[in-house]
Design a protein that fits this description.
single chain, 62% helix, globular
């Protein structure tokens, strides 16, 4: 997987950015340091002015890449989902047993993320923390329907569709396959959030990761 990922480019819908940050050193520094800064101070306190100070560049130079910090968060979220999709496709490709394939897919989308050395300017471990804590802010907005029509969430929806297809292979007439697929993806994030911030209301302790819960939940629903 690493050899393949090393020659692949993570593609984000081009309407999200003004200039592709992957095409320049400054763009990559904007992405790299925005992840670190959002993790440090939170998205609500994050500004392009603060990011400019951190990278030693004018605030206006950041606006040449992203129209707003909302679009930057959309970019980071989309990049993460695309990166996760590559792992899902590659790690499940050779698995022929449908149930084993689905279990592996659930493990991939609900596991704790570790850094991927193939993308040196992006710390996936820190980015995952942002996805857990902040990604809902990318779509809990008044503009979500318009942005959805513009294709901003196509990778996120495609990932859910892949899970849905794996579910239907096992139980073709299952009525709630899309609901189950979206619950697995979003629920994994939510359980990690509870584990980190409200451990008294989740069974997903350090030794009992959300993956086990969602595999059991899925099996029970597909019996």
């Amino acid at each position: 997987m690493k050899n393949l990922l090393s020659v692949l480019k993570i593609s984000v819908p081009d309407k999200i950015f003004i200039k592709d940050p992957e095409t320049s050193d400054l763009g990559k520094r904007i992405v790299e340091n925005s992840i670190l800064l959002i993790d440090d101070i939170g998205f609500d306190s994050f500004t392009f002015k603060k990011l400019g100070t951190k990278i030693g560049s004018n605030e206006s130079s950041i606006y040449r890449y992203f129209e707003s910090k909302h679009k930057l968060l959309l970019y980071l979220s989309s990049w993460y989902w695309a990166w996760l999709e590559y792992q899902l496709v590659i790690e499940t490709f050779s698995i022929s047993n449908p149930l084993e394939k689905l279990e592996k897919a659930i493990a991939i989308v609900t596991r704790t993320v570790k850094e991927d050395s193939n993308f040196s300017h992006i710390n996936e471990t820190v980015l995952y923390k942002i996805i857990v804590n902040e990604s809902s802010k990318s779509f809990l907005t008044k503009e979500v329907d318009l942005e959805n029509r513009e294709g901003y969430f196509e990778i996120y929806k495609r990932l859910i569709t892949r899970l849905n297809e794996m579910i239907l292979v096992i139980k073709p007439k299952y009525t709630f396959s899309l609901s189950l697929a979206s619950t697995i993806l979003e629920g994994g994030l939510h359980q990690h959030f509870l584990q980190n911030h409200f451990p008294s209301i989740t069974d997903s302790k350090d030794e009992e990761l959300p993956t086990k819960f969602f595999i059991q939940l899925t099996k029970n629903n597909l019996q």
